[in-house]
Amino acid sequence: MKINTITIGRAFAAALILFLSKPALGGEADAREKCASLSTLSTPTFRVDTAEWVAAGRLPAGPFGETAEAPSHCLFRVVLDPRESGMEEMSYGTGIELRMPLDWNGRMLFQGGGGLDGVLIPAFGSVSGFPSALARGFAVVSTDGGHRGRNNVDARFAVDQQAKLDFAYQAVARTTREAKALIGRYYGRKPEYSYFMGCSTGGREAMMAAQRLPLEFDGVVAGNPSFNLTQVAVNQIWSLQAVARIAPRDETGKPLLFEAFTDAQLQAVAAGVLGQCDALDGLADGIIHDYQACRFDPASLRCGTAPCLSTPQIEALKDIHGGTRNSRGESLYGSTPYDTGIGLPAWRAMHLGTRDNPPANASLGRDTLRLFSMTPADPELDPLRFDFDRDIAATAETAAINDAVATLHTSFAGHGGKMIVYHGLSDQAMWAGALTRWYERLTPRDGQGPQSWARLFLVPGMTHCGGGQSTDRFDMLSAIQEWVEQGRAPDRVVASGKAFPGVTRPLCPYPKVARFDGGDEDDEKSFSCR
Question: Which of 160, 218, 427, 472 is catalytic?
């Protein structure tokens, strides 16, 4: 049956006029009624799945059993332009979840996604170790990126043109517009301030919001962003090939990737980096702040010591940390410093895997490259045969729509927009050098670069979006709010972490690093950013 879009448009408009005729919130009873009435907005192209009142309490907040305290709020879920994909456990359409608290603070937070999206993450606006944005009174919105799959690493959606555009940027744009309109309808006024905060894919989406929607957000926070995702996937294959070259073979000639390095060897590298570079910031405390001065060379562990590295292993580590290059030696991605994360399970899981589980580079990296990064998709591509001269051109079309690599932000900065980007120096998947190279080219610029409106914080020891031998607990939401609303730029951000109980450290805006000035070794006040 053909859908009459004109009739649907008139029906939606009539429902909207009726909805708008209701006054602003007048207490919890009115809020409940108005929340339920959101269901009347449903049409075939605006499918309302949920419009219900949620009582205050501790609620499920993530896919791994996470919970969070939440105030009383209206929970609204809708799918824009839903359609079938023809694939099992895959559907298209932009899914949105919006949570609007009874005691609203006049602000909206767009919570970014993760992986390849494909799931609708509960819209709480979590801040590790701190109250969520929802608990602080924000209206919080999230999206599934334009498709629903088996999980957030299901790359099959990318064969569809519209689904790929949605994931790249259109789902963020549509969700932003719909969320602001719905908030205005519900509260009787639109947000006074709008923020975007996310990590990994959510970080890319935050950067994309500043790039493609420069007038929509007052502040964005991008953590460990997969901002150049097409090249992240290529770099994962670069690492996979480096490991495969040195791995022992089974009886069929297949490389045993998990045996390329032993855990003892990787931990020896981590200890070697720490021993050489830990005290460069003035204090040997297990954290390498002055990574720029660190000149660790894995050749220092060449066999002759124990546990030692063979020459092929040394060269493989140099290739991995140096990042993707073509046959002329030109960098196609960026490098990453040696840090303590190489000795942790996260690094093994990404680059080596175990006897029972292949490395993420050989699964997520492979599928992202074959189905998403390359145009046309090449489901049968052997990643070990990818050519970094010949095949890199096949990623250009996806990069043009997906990668948040733009450096011109005159409109975003010009209307007062502020940006905080942070990245773990032990991120096992995304290299810090790619991000610093982007940051150093940002415009507009003043005498110190883009510091007046954008700041980058590199977190020593932190793996992807958290974890590692690091102080990975910090409140960037408060930092961006204070910068946007009070004009207080973040000259340092106080951080703590489970890896160092009772210890605080400052995170410093790039290119400054934390240096010990003397005093209490556990207190961030004993450090300055220089």
Answer: 427
